[in-house]
């Protein structure tokens, strides 16, 4: 089975995820579950609630009436709204730094909800168990493959009976709602619209998928940066567009890349349904550090993929390919949506 962690984290805050509710967060806030960075820890750092943890931690549950023979304590849970709805291929439950206070068991459920339901409305939905209740260890990353070929919008992490979890990662394939895209000019290269990276020359410093993320990068680590080349070649990345379309404008963003931006960039396109040959879309063009560059494309063919070449190496913060979906593109989005609607 392919490594599902190579797929986007559909729940991470930087892609729009949120944690609207939890049963308890006495020791550490539920929102920490979807922070994009790895969990951090400083020993002997105490606040008013005890040791400070970069994660979600609940209070200790106790058997009622001190009847130790009957365990009716229940369990804790956290509700996560996916920033990018899609098909979940795997979940990571990370108990980093929780060594004497981790939950011994956990499970994960998922549901699909249209619109913007409240927490109460979500509780009444039909939930599908995508990760059965299983054991956890302290200070460890637990990887759970998921076999549920449906589009989900929310997940619920259940821990038994209580304790702390540092991070929840929900990896999968983005399935956008075609009703929000058809008939409009859209970013054909946006991760949130279903675009994905299919290849690149180098990912020494950071992953190329970062250039498809929404918003501006907060620092140079949130883009794609390659190692320094010592030959006559150049670096490149190939992006499969969200659906077949006609690009109208390309934006190449080097925000925060002040001393390691490429000197030039070029864009070529491909229609993989036909010859598969690469056609120049934007010739090698001078770009500057720490800035956004926009180029109108005249004329542009119908494409399924684009290839961004940077010369000779360096970093890119974001790539935007604004354009129009073709009739075939709109049909492809609708068919994919229908296939996974459940």
TrEMBL record:
Pfam family, one: Allantoicase
Translocase among keywords: no
EC category: hydrolase
Keyword Nuclease among record annotations: no
Pathway(s): Nitrogen metabolism; (S)-allantoin degradation; (S)-ureidoglycolate from allantoate (aminidohydrolase route): step 1/1
Coiled-coil ranges (or none): none
Transmembrane parts of this sequence: none
Domain of life: Bacteria
Keywords, ordered alphabetically: Hydrolase, Purine metabolism
Domain Allantoicase, residue spans: 16-174, 194-324
Catalytic activity line of the entry: allantoate + H2O = (S)-ureidoglycolate + urea
EC number annotated for this UniProt entry: 3.5.3.4
UniProt cross-references to HAMAP family, sorted A to Z: Allantoicase
Similarity-based family: Belongs to the allantoicase family.
Protein known as: Probable allantoicase
């Amino acid at each position: 089975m392919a490594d599902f962690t190579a797929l986007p984290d559909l729940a991470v805050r930087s892609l729009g995820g949120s944690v609207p509710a939890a049963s308890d967060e006495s020791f550490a806030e539920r929102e920490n579950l979807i922070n994009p960075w790895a969990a951090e820890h400083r020993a002997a750092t105490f606040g008013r609630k005890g040791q400070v943890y970069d994660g979600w931690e609940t209070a200790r549950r106790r058997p009622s009436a001190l009847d130790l023979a009957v365990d009716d304590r229940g369990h804790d849970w956290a509700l996560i709204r996916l920033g990018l709805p899609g098909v979940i291929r795997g979940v990571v439950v990370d108990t980093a730094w929780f060594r004497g206070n981790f939950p011994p068991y956990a499970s994960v459920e998922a549901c699909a909800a249209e619109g913007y339901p409240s927490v109460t409305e979500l509780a009444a939905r039909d939930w599908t168990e995508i990760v059965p209740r299983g054991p956890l260890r302290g200070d460890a990353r637990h990887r759970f493959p998921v076999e549920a070929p449906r589009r989900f919008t929310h997940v619920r992490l259940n821990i038994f009976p209580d304790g702390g979890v540092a991070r929840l990662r929900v990896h999968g394939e983005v399935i956008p709602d075609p009703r929000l895209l058809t008939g409009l000019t859209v970013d054909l290269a946006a991760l949130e619209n279903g675009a994905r990276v299919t290849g690149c020359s180098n990912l020494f410093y950071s992953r190329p998928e970062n250039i498809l993320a929404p918003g501006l990068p907060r620092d140079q680590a949130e883009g794609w940066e390659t190692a320094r080349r010592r030959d006559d070649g150049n670096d490149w990345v190939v992006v499969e567009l969200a659906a077949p379309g006609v690009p109208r404008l390309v934006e190449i963003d080097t925000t925060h890349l002040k001393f390691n931006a490429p000197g030039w960039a070029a864009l070529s396109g491909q229609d993989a349904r036909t010859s598969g040959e690469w056609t120049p879309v934007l010739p090698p063009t001078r770009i500057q550090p720490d800035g956004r560059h926009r180029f109108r494309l005249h004329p542009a063919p119908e494409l399924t993929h684009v290839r961004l070449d940077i010369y000779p190496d360096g970093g890119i913060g974001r790539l935007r390919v604004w354009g129009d979906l073709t009739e075939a593109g709109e049909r492809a989005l609708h068919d994919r949506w229908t296939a996974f609607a459940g």
